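Retro notes - structure team

What went well: the batch runner handled both jobs without manual restarts.
What didn't: labels got mixed up in the shared folder, which is why I'm recording both outputs here explicitly, each with its sequence directly above its tokens.

Job 1
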Amino acid sequence: MNSSIRLQPVIMAGGSGTRLWPLSRAGYPKQFLVLAGNQSLFQQSVLRLQGLGAEDIKLDAPLVVGNDEHRFLVLDQLRELRCDPAAVLLEPVGRNTAPAMTLAALQALQDDADPVLVVTPADQTVTDAAAFSAAVQQAVRMAADGTIVILGITPDRAETGYGYIRAEGSAVAQFVEKPDAATAQRYVDEGGYYWNSGMFVLRASSWMAALERFRPDIAAACRVAFASRKTDDRFVRPGREEFAAVPSESVDYAVMEHCPGSGIALRMVPLAAGWNDLGAWDAVWQVADKDAQGNAAAGDAIIEDSRNTLVHATSRLVGVVGLDDVVVVETPDAVLVSRRECSQDVKKIVSRLDGQQRGEHTAHRKVHRPWGWYDSIDAGARFQVKRIMVKPGASLSLQMHHHRAEHWIVVSGTAEVTCGDKVMLLSENQSTYIPLGETHRLRNPGRLPLELIEVQSGSYLGEDDIVRFEDTYGRN
């Protein structure tokens, strides 16, 4: 085993996934969604990478690169898999994929190591795990000598939503932008063209050398941000101001497109493993199980006299009649209806929501927090009703509100309530009152989830009316 190749999986879990709105939101993007089965896309990525070890390949625990605001989603979903990461690198601001990969490479180069990195986005799906492992292991062995390897997807149709790679044998000859329909068909007919998967296999030092050659400004700025990092358990936090100064650029634009003809070895391994990047609702329909008329349904949906239609119901019954090539996505606070061929344009709706500063752009009605979640089930003038779940052993911050009072009714589990200088235990069907301006805290001391109904009343009910005095999660 002394001659084995050390392999460091890297999962890129940033991004907002706006094209799968309204299911995907900025606060809960698509990589953390369960679109099929019982595991999220992020969890599927983790499990795929766990199958890459071999007699000559020593597999390390994964590195995860993600947004700071999603850090507890990452940890919770890793914990469900009983996966202990090597580190979770937290980007204070989004700077695209080249800086994200650079953070991972700098972390991997610690302790005089130089592993082969397998870098994969967290929001893709693969149906043939064995074919995926075989192709990636081939790429790992090629990358061990310093070669940069990209996984190219063997196209099964003319697709205008992907970038393409032109290959001559295993050598990458050219990167091609997203083509129009006629050009995409020509690529499929001619052969030698592959979809760009966004998955790369290369030594950490190979990435840094290529980046310093083509984008030394990104390399230097990332080194400064990484040098000012702070470590908190598994979290590695680059300096906020320093990372904000890093130029934003993709891996392809920063490095890969410059490699052909530069003397840097860039090769491609074909991947035929049922890959899909789920970049739009049309892609979700493509990979879904369908009935004889080509319809796909998730949740409580009834489809009649329709063809090639996707219905995704989250919180209620959705019935459709007489639809062809349509996407219908229902959530508690928003519904999307679109022709499948236009599903890439959902981002235009998200942009308008953002411009209007509407909350449906960033968060669901059900909002996840480090301690659990809350669901805003009703609201009116001067009142709001929430359903709250607190994980076993978790607690909210010690806090107070200037503008609202709260009533808490325990539905299940046990609540430890701090209200001023009093601490009390409440069980099912018991309740308490938190006066306006009173310091208070809610904690779950039990082994089962705590659920309660909270009724807020007052002149202002916004989430920013919270003064935190103590917080387990560093949000003071």
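Job 2
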Amino acid sequence: MDHSYSNTKPHQKGKHLKLNDRTTIQELHSKGYSNRAIARELNCSPSTVGYELKRGTVSVYRYKAVEGQSTYELHRSKCGRKSLFLRRHKFIDYVSHCFHNRGWSLDACVGYALAKGIFQKDQVVSTKTLYNYVDLGLMDIKNGDLPEKVKRNTKTRRARVNKRILGRSIDERSPRIESRKD
């Protein structure tokens, strides 16, 4: 498969395999290539090829690229940290209700819910997280609905001051010009 005229880009190390990489694995594996030889063709680790063969093997010795791709996508959909927004929806609905109907701030909603025992500590998200959800548009509360957030200027402005002065300024230097004779 070493073709100088091939127009397919080789797999980059450290990147996930694509369906065409899996198809290459399927073709070369069916021809009897070793994991190491397949890895050389794809520019990846031999263990990556081994893991992929294990992932996509349907019957005893039969690897299918489509099966490997679907298994990969299933595993990929389940990976990563899950948002608290979905797991704490009852509390978020409570905050939204208190904000709109009682006129409370987000911080007051969190404090009241914890003080009165309406929600346990592990069922509540922090005030900062609630404000992040508002910024992302995940809640039915908008930034314009938060009076303190609209009138506050969160950016601090400061004049940059040099920590130390190195030598004299240009204005204090003597105006003499030295001429060179070459």
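One thing worth noting from job 2: The chain has nine helices and no strands.
We'll revisit the folder naming next retro.
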